[in-house]
């Protein structure tokens, strides 16, 4: 499904041939119609509009068609089986001619120059395969933020203090990661669909496999806010299971170092134990701890697998 609004008032810099690279924004989303509808129109504020926006959802009901019509660039809607990795892969497979795909969470807000700076960086440094931006505020660790709060933070931000165009990082942050499609094609790279549903740590796995072909970097010039909206996220028990199962799986794949995986699991278990009696209102600590214990039991008996979350409540 492709929606093509009237381009007569679109940014003149978006004319054909105005850009050296074809840049697509890809957004996987499930069960978050309201936040997607609220955040999506802000893409129209970019000084460099995307050549296309591709949104992959689980059902047509996940998209507000009226709000999409407000965006002055082509928008395509894909339907896929639910799961972050499956939906991201569907986006990758649907843009065979793209040079860059900028994956955004449906609750990520970009500074106005974000896409222009992304294109500039990839054009200047052909050895960069993945770039992630600088998140100046992240609601994922708290109750979350409204779109209005996120935009206010972006407007107050003074801009990058670091003059370096990019710095190496172990992995991109999945809420905002730009991918060079030539490397995806050369390496036949896909997000690992053995990480189902929320697909926690899929950004680590994808980044480390992409690092075999080029650099994975972060740029202080790509500024954004992750609202951390809590609606539509996976259950506490499922996420708690993934907190153990996914690092173990990536450690076995050798896309996450043993040290990082063990530290990640230890932090998760300690946090869930320490806060179970006085949990944050927005986190199901009891459910997460239950998921942790179920995963540890499955690890002991030899049946631990990330896919097991699909049989949990």
Automatic annotation (TrEMBL):
Q: What Gene3D superfamilies does this protein map onto? A: Spore Coat Polysaccharide Biosynthesis Protein SpsA, Chain A
Specify whether Transferase is a keyword of the entry: yes
What CDD domains does the database record attribute to this sequence? Answer: Glyco_tranf_GTA_type
Per the record, the domain of life is: Bacteria
Which residue intervals define the domain Glycosyltransferase 2-like in the entry?
Answer: 25-146
Query: What does the UniProt keyword field contain?
Result: Transferase
Any single GO molecular-function term of the entry would be: transferase activity
Against Pfam families, the record matches this protein to: Glycos_transf_2 (PF00535)
What the entry lists under PANTHER family is as follows: GLYCOSYLTRANSFERASE, SLR2126 PROTEIN
**Protein name stated in the entry:** Glycosyltransferase family 2 protein
